[in-house]
Description:
By secondary structure, the chain is of the alpha/beta class. The protein is built from 16 helices and 15 strands. It has an 8-stranded parallel sheet. Strands 6-8-9 form a 3-stranded mixed sheet, covered by helices on one side. Residues 20, 23, 164-165, 168, 222, 295, 378, 382, 425, 432-435, 439 line the site of 6-O-phosphono-beta-D-glucopyranose (BG6).
Amino acid sequence: MQTTQNTSFPKHFLWGASTSSFQFEGGATLGNKGISVQDLQQPNPGCCDFSVASDHYHHYKEDIALMAEMGFKAYRMSIAWSRILPDGFHLNPEGIDFYKNIFNECHRYHIEPIVTIFHFDIPQALIDLYGSWLDRRMIDAYVDYAKQLFKHYKDDVHYWLTFNEQNMLIFFGAVDIMGSNRMFHSDKELYQQAHHQLVAQARAMILCHELCPTAKIGPVPNITCCYPKTCHPLDYIAAKRFCDLRNYFYLDALVKGQYPTTCLSYLQQQEAMFTWEAKDMDYLKNAHPDFIAFNYYGGATVEHWKKEDALNLEQLQNMENHDISFLSILAQKPSIGKSVSNEYIAKTSYNMNIDPIGLTATLIDLYDRYHLPLIITENGCGCEDELTPDECIHDDYRIDYLRQHILAVKAALDLNVDVFGYCPWSAIDLISTREGCRKRYGFVYVNRDDFDVKDLKRIRKDSFYWYQKVIQSNGSQL
Ligand code: BG6
């Protein structure tokens, strides 16, 4: 997107990168950690599990030193719920100390931790007890967990994120998309879960404001603009309604304290309307997030719904999880539209969109709708990297991808959108949710593969040195 101004990045812009505990940490059975749902996940064929991951558990000092060497101002990470409350109820002091040490290490280098409370890893004990988020008691379980974090890390953490990509869990939620454990849910069950998760987040935000008055807290959905496939008016309407269901259902609830009417009417039509208690809406109205964090991996393109598009569950059961058409089938919304490919958008070797213009558009849309400061907490290029015999990784494709997206952030800043940070995925290589560790995102290579954890040596990629310069120059040397 062309703009005429040439704004600099703000002085205190939070340059950094992200990870999540289950994909990065390892130590799955160490330090009195409880079993999390991710520990029981059946990996896709040929992919490793998350038990060792990048072994950040033992390498955190080295890892944070590498982040400091790149010049990070912020590090977006997550806490494993099952490390803090192994059985969902009783505190694990070793878990508390583990993250305390990580925060101390960050502060030693003046890196601001941005901490996700929940990134896809519920203690299994809670699932054994309550089944799922369909049970309202999950709200209290989440709020009690958040309370422990606020209490213990009040002085360490100034930015909290409530729930990673809640919208994707629900939007694609006809199945558990993270591994090959397939669980199908009806829309009625999904949206009931979504409502409980939103109430839990609202209560955590209210609590955070009470217990940590100097901290800021916000949600972290996966947001992208939705393009109509053609200029046909029906495609235009489909894209707008798809966008409401994919993006605004969640953000409107937390920022405006109400659900978009288009979504409520969709749920009524689908006989999938959820139930709520009167006080729930008060919580949503009083949540008042301080900012919006969002993950961005490229635009969605929508074609209006036709009767013959009806979902075929049998077809779904037989598809591989990594098959892109599997995800597009999951993204079909009966009577609204379906997700289709876009000839104007390039793809990575893993079929992910490369759509920097969509990032500028998303930043503008979000800012205009909610008037809250924005931070990008994921965005990145998952590729197979080649380690050369002299231990280099020439990942110019990643540099190119990130450069384009940073320019897109700059274009939004030029239009006076308030963006205060950029934390791509991922700081250091970690395990992808569905495609093992060969699909890498980091600035630092971790020497392991899907079958052998090897020596887990950390090796700086070309993108490491490039990002170091970007940060040093506050975004002027791209
Ligand atoms: C985001 C998730 O949706 O996408 C991350 O928050 C995930 O946990 C990232 O790793 C990239 O997706 P994938 O499937 O390549 O790991």
